């Protein structure tokens, strides 16, 4: 997704090496995808459609 | 020289996958001198991977000494890896980063991402691509993984 849009950044985070960040986002199961610092979350594998829906939800939530 | 992290068999497998590489890729590695137990292994790993193909170029930085460059690529953790395109002298930043060592399952992701960046192709569906074009605000995706 980062490749397709200049507005999207994608960061893979090795949870064990960065426990502070992982704890802040309450990472319990991996993989876990966090959107905009916690505005949205997908726990487990994130199929394209599901991730997309969660991004939409996270962006809407900020607007509201 | 230090012992190789990738054995001949693994290198052979990566070579097969790298047959799909197309355009040049710039890999930026950011290490840190202190408190970075995984920096050395990660640097060695990306060195060994980028040596496998002429299309892959590696530059090594220090997150503190090269703080300006780190900030430009939004790298705030070490070891940090940026996978970017390269066009002549130009680096094409797509916003793809790794924080921490890409070992285990993530090593496969790294190899896969290198091919995608090289082919300038995300592999996403048309629907997703169209949606991403309509974005008006920044989206930061952080994928937390463990090295198993």
Give an account of the 3D structure.
The complex is a heterodimer of chains A (64) and B (148). With 64 residues, chain A is an alpha+beta fold. Chain A has one domain (19-63). Chain A has two helices and three strands; from the N terminus they run E-H-E-E-H. Chain A has helices at residues 19-24, 48-63; strands at 8-14, 32-35, 40-43. Chain A has a two-stranded antiparallel sheet with strand order 2-3. In chain A, a hairpin with a 4-residue loop joins strand 2 (32-35) and strand 3. The termini of chain A are far apart. The mean pLDDT of chain A is 94. In chain B, strands 1, 2, 3, 4 and 5 form a five-stranded mixed β-sheet that branches. The longest helix of chain B is centred in the last third of the chain and has 15 residues, at 105-119. Chain B has 148 residues and is an alpha+beta fold. Chain B has a single domain, classed as Glutaredoxin (3-Layer(aba) Sandwich), CATH 3.40.30.10. In chain B, helix 2 links the parallel strand 1 and strand 2. The A-B interface holds A 1-18, 21-22, 25, 27, 30-37, 46, 48-49, 51-52, 55-56, 59, 62 and B 38, 74, 77, 94-102, 106, 109, 116-117, 120-122, 124-125, 127-129, 131-133, 135-147. Strand 1 of chain A pairs parallel with strand 5 of chain B, so a sheet runs across the interface.
SSE order and pairing:
The complex is a heterodimer of chains A (64) and B (148).
Chain A: E1 8-14, H1 19-24, E2 32-35, E3 40-43, H2 48-63
Antiparallel strand pairs in A: 2-3
Chain B: H1 8-18, E1 25-31, H2 39-50, E2 56-62, H3 67-72, E3 80-87, E4 90-92, E5 96-99, H4 105-119, H5 126-133, E6 139-145
Parallel strand pairs in B: 1-2
Antiparallel strand pairs in B: 1-3, 3-4, 3-5
Q: Radius of gyration of chain B in whole Å, from Cα?
A: 16 Å
Quantity of strands of chain A, as a count: 3
Order of SSEs of chain B: HEHEHEEEHHE
The tally of strands of chain B reads 6
Report the C-alpha radius of gyration of chain A, rounded: 12 Å
Helix content percent band of chain B:
25-40%
Strand order of the largest sheet of chain A: 2-3
Task: Indicate the multimeric state.
Answer: heterodimer
And the CATH topology of chain B?
A: Glutaredoxin
Approximately what portion of the residues of chain A adopt beta-strand conformation? 15-25%
Low-pLDDT stretches of chain A: none
Largest interface: A-B, 39 and 40 residues
Helix content of chain A: 25-40%
Order of helices and strands of chain A: EHEEH
User: Which term fits the overall shape of chain A?
Assistant: globular
Per CATH, the class of chain B reads Alpha Beta
Largest sheet of chain A: 2 strands, antiparallel
Shape of chain B: globular
**Major β-sheet annotation of chain B:** 5 strands, mixed
């Amino acid at each position: 997704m980062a490749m397709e849009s200049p507005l999207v950044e994608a960061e893979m985070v090795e949870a064990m090496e960065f426990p502070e960040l992982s704890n802040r986002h309450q990472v319990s199961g991996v993989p876990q995808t966090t959107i905009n610092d916690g505005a949205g979350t997908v726990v487990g594998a994130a199929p394209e459609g599901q991730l997309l829906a969660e991004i939409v939800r996270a962006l809407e939530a900020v607007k509201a | 020289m230090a012992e190789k992290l990738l054995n001949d068999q693994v290198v052979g497998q990566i070579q097969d996958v790298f047959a799909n590489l197309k355009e040049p890729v710039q890999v930026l590695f950011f290490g840190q001198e202190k408190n970075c137990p995984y920096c050395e292994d990660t640097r060695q790993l990306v060195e060994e991977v980028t040596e496998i193909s002429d299309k892959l170029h590696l530059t090594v930085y220090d997150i503190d000494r090269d703080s300006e460059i780190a900030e430009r690529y939004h790298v705030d953790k070490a070891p940090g890896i940026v996978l970017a395109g390269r066009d002549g002298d130009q680096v094409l930043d797509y916003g793809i980063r790794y924080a921490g060592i890409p070992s285990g399952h993530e090593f496969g992701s790294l190899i896969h991402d290198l091919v995608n960046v090289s082919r300038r192709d995300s592999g996403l569906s048309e629907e997703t691509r169209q949606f991403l074009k309509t974005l008006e605000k920044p989206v930061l995706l952080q994928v937390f993984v463990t090295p198993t």
